[in-house]
Specification:
two-stranded antiparallel sheet, nine-stranded antiparallel beta sheet, alpha+beta, 267 residues
């Protein structure tokens, strides 16, 4: 009897377990979120948001830079150059024209400037020249010669301007071709050595003028001033039948020396 009761209990529990398994809800499916794609670039934080005010574009100047030659070699009105020099004696200088030298446009009394490119210790110094005389060619091919007479007066360096003795020894046009101008014409050149001899006459005249104004001491000062004024070396360039044209960038070679200093004599 007891065995039958135990068997019935086991059978009942088995049937109840099968029914519970069939009625139990299915396990919830786990959903996974896909990982973000790292290949997509993050938005640029530097870019302004849509609709934000845009900064104004920088202004672009359409005016070309100035090519006006520097005026470092020009003294203020009324100021005279020094006669102390720069401690130079018979030194070779190469200068680049900053303004044109042309019989087409220049006239006596005009000045022109050049910048020193050699020697290294004087690079950037400004040399000023002056046109003393000019002869234009006559109209028509081969009608006479053109010539320009000029001299170099002063050199300005580190704020100091001094008269100098400068003699032209070589020329080249702006393309670097020697002994011809920028139109390809052969150029002859001469130095007016007589100006060196005139220094003695200038000194004598200066001494006489100084003596009349200040006696013996005035004579010594006048002699020195006359010598410096008379020592400028004039140079002449000539060509046959046409104008002379040297553009900015033409190179001249000079021999440069300090101006002579007056010797003070004991009274």
């Amino acid at each position: 009897m007891k065995g039958l009761l135990l068997f019935g209990a086991l059978a009942a529990s088995f049937c109840f377990g099968q029914q519970a398994a069939q009625t139990a809800p299915p396990p919830e499916q786990q959903t996974t979120q896909p990982a973000p794609d790292s290949s997509q670039a993050a938005p640029d934080a530097a870019q302004p948001a849509a609709g934000a005010a845009q900064p104004p574009a920088p202004e672009v100047s359409l005016v070309p830079p100035s090519t006006t030659p520097p005026s470092a070699g020009q003294l203020p009105p009324g100021q005279k150059p020094s006669t102390d020099g720069f401690g130079i004696k018979d030194q070779t200088f190469v200068i680049d024209l900053l303004s044109p030298l042309s019989t087409k446009t220049a006239k006596p009394g005009d000045t022109f400037t050049a910048s020193v490119s050699s020697p290294p210790q004087f690079v950037g110094a400004i040399i000023e020249g002056r046109i003393n005389n000019m002869k234009k060619p006559k109209k028509g091919a081969g009608k006479g010669n053109a010539s320009v007479e000029f001299e170099f007066d002063t050199m300005t360096f580190h704020g100091k301007t001094s008269t100098m003795t400068m003699q032209l020894t070589d020329i080249a046009n702006s393309k670097g071709v020697k002994n011809v101008d920028d139109e390809g014409r052969a150029i002859g050149r001469t130095s007016q050595k007589k100006r060196v001899g005139m220094a003695f006459g200038g000194a004598a005249l200066g001494a006489l003028a100084g003596y009349a104004l200040g006696g013996a001491s005035g004579a010594m000062i006048g002699a020195g001033v006359g010598a410096v004024a008379g020592l400028a070396i004039g140079m002449t360039m000539t060509t046959s039948g046409s104008d002379i044209e040297f553009r900015p960038g033409s190179k001249f070679t000079l021999t440069v020396t300090d101006p002579p200093q007056p010797k003070k004599k004991k009274l």
